[in-house]
Structure prediction request, 223 residues.
Amino acid sequence: GIQVEQSPPDLILQEGANSTLRCNFSDSVNNLQWFHQNPWGQLINLFYIPSGTKQNGRLSATTVATERYSLLYISSSQTTDSGVYFCAVEGRGGSEKLVFGKGTKLTVNP
Amino acid sequence: KAGVTQTPRYLIKTRGQQVTLSCSPISGHRSVSWYQQTPGQGLQFLFEYFSETQRNKGNFPGRFSGRQFSNSRSEMNVSTLELGDSALYLCASGLAGVPNTQYFGPGTRLTVL
Prediction:
């Protein structure tokens, strides 16, 4: 099945810094989503981005489908950005199931 | 529009018991998927239902089962609980169209003693 790799596994920043999280996937995808898991465990949708670029406030994401990677940019990070960021993909087989990476744990210190 | 809801939020069971978890999708969503999250295995797909039919199943033993009702609400059941079933169980709903964005509920945290 499709494989998803996220890097780095851990990231520690000072408030105000910028960061880039990467997601590599092994096959063509119908769906790619970025999530932020809050301390209570809920997965919060950040982006649905199987291709192209999107921006939402301080966050933006780019997926280059032909090269099988996606990037999540966080600018001017805040302590509330802390948590685990997951990339999840759905393969072209149309199975409707999301395959998740292992996540990037982001810690933003004041 | 209300989000995905899951009940109960927390559950403690003992080995050998069975448990039923419930998920109500976003209004209008007909696809419901279940995922298990553990520290060791991460987030893994359990199964997906659409219009009361199971369309996909992950690599879990038959002790894990589910169903979907005509109002799209879904339940999953785990029989003969094992210690390793302790996990966060997440439900997601979607339109099953394009874009196929999945929206997750807050999860049910199951502890098996």
